Amino acid sequence: MQFSKKCRKGANERITVLRKLYQNTDEIIKFALNNYRRKELALDDILDALCLAVSGLQGLKKEFSVIPQKPEKDLKGLDMKIVFSCS
């Protein structure tokens, strides 16, 4: 992304990508903007959540990737890894 997610150009960049991956992008954004006050939920928060949800859907449809391949464990025994989907 070229612009910060906090500015209008950055939000528009992200919305453009989301629209290509998920047809209900506009409806979800509109719903969230209409049902929550901006001090409760900012546009960049909506886009962050939508990006995670769409990435999860893409991973379920295709496949998730993980880095590193053999993750270390944290103090609670949980894998320290990044899980993502490439489309």
Structure description:
The chain is of the alpha+beta class. It has a domain at 8-62. Helix content is 51%, strand content 20%. The protein has three helices and two strands. It has a two-stranded antiparallel ribbon with strand order 1-2. A hairpin with a 5-residue loop joins strand 1 and strand 2 (79-85). Helix 1 runs parallel beside helix 3 and helix 2 (25-35) runs antiparallel to helix 3. The radius of gyration is 16 Å and the shape is globular.
Task: Give the helices and strands as they follow along the chain.
Answer: HHHEE
Question: From the alpha-carbon coordinates, what is the Rg to the nearest angstrom?
Answer: 16 Å
- Structural class call reads alpha+beta
Percent of residues in beta strands: 15-25%
State the separation between the terminal residues, measured CA to CA: 16 Å
What is the helix content? Answer: 40-55%
For the biggest sheet, the summary is:
2 strands, antiparallel
List how many beta strands DSSP finds: 2
Instruction: Provide the residue-averaged pLDDT.
Output: 93
| Neighbour order of strands in the largest sheet | 1-2
Coarse morphology: globular
Number of helices: 3
Identify low-pLDDT runs. Answer: none
Describe the structure concisely for a colleague:
The chain is of the alpha+beta class and 87 residues long. It contains 3 helices and 2 strands; from the N terminus they run H-H-H-E-E.
Features:
globular, single chain, two-stranded antiparallel ribbon, 51% helix, 20% strand, alpha+beta, 3 helices, 87 residues
